[in-house]
Amino acid sequence: MFKLMIKIHNKTKLKYLCQTKRKNYMEYTGSGVYWLKHLKKHGFDFTTILLYQNDDLEIFTERCLYYSHLFEVDISGEYANLIHELGPDQKQQFIYWWKYASHEMKKEVYKKRGKSLKLYWANLSDLKYTHICENMSVKQTEFWCDIPFDERKIRMEKCLIGLNKFHEDKDGDSYIEWKESLSKSSLNRYNEMTIKDKKKLGVEISKTRLSMSMESKLNRKRKIQKVYDTGKHDELFLRYSKERKGVNNPNATIIVWENIEYTRSQFVKYIRNITLSRKECFYILDNNPTDTCFYKRKFKRKHIMLVCPHCDKKSSKNQSAMLRWHFDNCKHKKDIK
Questions:
Q1: Which range among 8-17, 40-49, 75-84, 98-107 shows the weakest confidence by mean pLDDT?
Q2: What would the mean pLDDT of 7-31 be, rounded to a whole number?
Q3: Where residue 71 sits, what CATH number does that domain have?
Q4: Most confidently modeled of 107-116, 140-149, 245-254, 328-337?
Q5: Residue 14 and residue 44 share a domain
Q6: Mean pLDDT within 230-246
Q7: Identity of the highest mean pLDDT range in 39-53, 103-117, 164-178, 220-234
Q8: Which among 38-52, 164-178, 264-278 has the top mean pLDDT?
Q9: Is residue 184 part of a domain?
Q10: Does residue 162 share a domain with residue 122?
Q11: Which of 21, 212, 282, 293 could make a disulfide contact with 289, Cβ separation 3.0–4.6 Å?
Q12: 18 versus 193: which is more confidently predicted?
């Protein structure tokens, strides 16, 4: 049974319109912020007058609104209510509160809600995550299917107008905050990606850029030139030129050598310390083989080494040249008569 009542403080005669479902409604103090502060200051000494009671939620809510507007509890100095008494329906209460809430209060709600959502999604299991996503997609499709096409068009137009207004005010605090949060989230996502995913992303970006028409390419070039002419991105460009050389760059060539990943510049430095010829180094850089493939190619043939019996000179890979030009013409050869 829902009960609507008026609480009257015995000392100050301040009134408070409230509702409850409790049986001991006479002892119920109420939940209003200003009313509770008043009770703490002047004592919990009040009388209760029962106005209305009913089991039906809709009828009871209508009655709550009727008495709220009748007594003007939100603006009257006799009542401690800050807003109208909207009944036990929490959804309706929140809608009404949101309508009259200040911008700062809404910002606080957004921050708290964002933190709680991040914790909730981080602790979700894979099965529950997929289940929630499927349910959300089904409900969204059902919701949009029920709306007629003309109404959808009007809603989308309103959204576009709001987005255009938001993007026009680029010097505003909300736009700057949004850009910073977007850049942070994209950086976190990029840092969490593997090298393979980064390479895939680089390939997709290059495909989209190549498939662009000449007009769109020229427009993109002009926009980039305008932005860089302002000098806003000079520091960013210098930072990216340092950070994105090598492993962080998805388009950089990665050389895997003895289970270690090297960029081209890192591998050149590494090559200088190992016993490889200049020709072999350039072969690795151009063809990018693994260490096993390279060693197989290098030591594929096993050449038999020839030794001159006169001067103990050893042959190289080309044995025929040694036999033809050196053996019989050796300076240390003794003439046999």
A1: 98-107
A2: 90
A3: 3.40.1440.10
A4: 140-149
A5: yes
A6: 69
A7: 39-53
A8: 38-52
A9: no
A10: yes
A11: 293
A12: 18
- The answer to whether residues 212 and 140 belong to one domain is no
**Does some domain include residue 178?**
no
Q: Averaged over 313-331, what is the pLDDT?
A: 73
User: What range does the domain containing 285 cover?
Assistant: 255-298
Number of domains into which the chain is organized: 4
Residue 269 lies in a domain: yes
User: Which of 151, 168, 185 delimits the end of a domain?
Assistant: 168
Residue in the structure block whose two tokens are 């950086």: 187
Same domain for 94 and 10, yes or no, is yes
| Residue range 148-196, pLDDT digits in tens | 888 888 888 888 888 888 888 878 888 888 888 877 777 777 777 888 8
Q: Is 291 inside any structural domain?
A: yes
Domain co-membership, 248 together with 260: no
Q: Which of 100, 120, 151 is the last residue before a domain boundary?
A: 100
Q: Where are the beta strands (DSSP E) in the chain?
A: 2-9, 15-20, 46-54, 255-257, 260-262
